[in-house]
Amino acid sequence: MKLSARNQIPGTIVTVKPGATTTHVTIAISGDVTVTASITNEAAEELGLKAGMKAFAVIKASDVMVGV
Q: Which of 6, 9, 29, 46 could form a disulfide with 33 if both were Cys (CB 3.0 to 4.6 A apart)?
């Protein structure tokens, strides 16, 4: 698979939590660093996401916001 997004971070899926319309997928990047994505339930089902699977967090954004 090729993507235009430069930020492709490999990891392992820790949790897959379906909700009413979206599924929250948490990917362990390293140690205690995780990334959580909110995707449609349909996409999660099509991808067959399960804890323990290898996956990529793909981040494409024109802005990065920082808050304190």
A: 29
pTM: 0.85
Give residue 7's pLDDT: 85
Q: Is 64 among the domain residues?
A: no
- Per the structure, how many domains does the chain have? 1
- Both tokens assigned to 17: 């939590």
Distance separating alpha carbons of residues 68 and 48, to the nearest angstrom: 36
Per-residue model confidence (pLDDT) at position 66: 74
Report the distance separating Cα 68 and Cα 60, nearest Å. 22
Query: Does some domain include residue 63?
Result: no
Higher-pLDDT residue of 23 and 66 is 23
SS3 41: helix
Residue 62 gets which letter from DSSP?
Answer: S
